[in-house]
From TrEMBL:
Official protein name in the record: Extensin family protein
Lineage, top ranks: Bacteria, Pseudomonadati, Pseudomonadota, Alphaproteobacteria, Sphingomonadales
Top-level taxon of origin: Bacteria
PROSITE patterns documented for this protein: PROKAR_LIPOPROTEIN
Chain ranges of the Extensin-like C-terminal domain: 40-216
Species: Sphingorhabdus buctiana
Length: 216
């Protein structure tokens, strides 16, 4: 009976130790926003009346991690599917929504944008779906993919149909692409490759050797 209990204990122990998945999170709550640049970024968000929740630092298998990230709760425009974002990405995205998306919608489409549709932020994967062998900026919550815009009058303007669609939609989307190039480290759209036919990719990485933005 004792031997049986011991065997059961070992089985449970093995199960507990072997249950660690490749995506198990290692939390370091005390490390959240300890650096001065990170704290300054939080102040920037607060000054812009952006509501957000700081997230605990997390590390995943494969080198993926989310360090000094936030969850955006509300800002000038509603946005979908936003997960963990590095604070600089969140600050630039919310500023782009307010100072680029809103005026461009009124100027080119004669209406207000009430919602920005995205394909998400954090995603533990490599660039180009794994072929490059290099982690994507999504793997650290440092990128966001924008797919469409919903107007107050009910109209939906998507990158997929609008980039080469109606004249006002083409002008609107190209204006947003150009303005994004001034705020993000890398901006990729439908003219870059087929993988970006249906969205804009924005991240805070610097792709050029001189540190300038990569905009395509």
């Amino acid at each position: 009976m004792v031997r049986g209990a011991f065997i059961l204990f070992l089985a449970l122990l093995v199960t507990a130790c072997g249950g660690r998945s490749e995506r198990e999170v290692v939390r370091r709550d005390n490390d959240v926003f300890r650096s001065e640049p990170a704290r300054q970024c939080l102040s920037t968000l607060k000054a812009a009346n952006v509501r957000f929740t700081p997230l605990p630092n997390q590390s995943f298998a494969g080198g993926c991690r989310t360090i000094d990230t936030v969850k955006l709760m509300s800002f000038s425009t509603e946005a979908t599917n936003l997960g963990a974002m590095t604070c600089p990405l969140a600050a630039n995205f919310t500023a782009w929504a307010k100072h680029a998306v809103e005026p461009a919608a009124k100027a080119y489409l004669g209406s207000e944008v009430v919602r920005i549709e995205t394909m998400g932020t954090y995603n533990c994967r490599n660039i180009n779906g794994g072929r490059s062998g290099r982690l994507s900026e999504h793997a650290s919550g440092n990128a966001v993919d924008v797919s469409a815009f919903i107007l107050k009058n009910g109209r939906r303007v998507s990158v997929l149909s609008g980039w080469n669609g109606k004249a006002d939609e083409r002008a609107f989307l190209r204006r947003l692409h150009q303005s994004a190039c001034k705020r993000f480290g890398t901006v990729l759209g439908p003219d870059y490759n087929a993988a970006h036919a249906n969205h804009f990719h924005f991240d805070m990485g610097k792709s050029m050797k001189d540190g300038s933005a990569f905009c395509r």
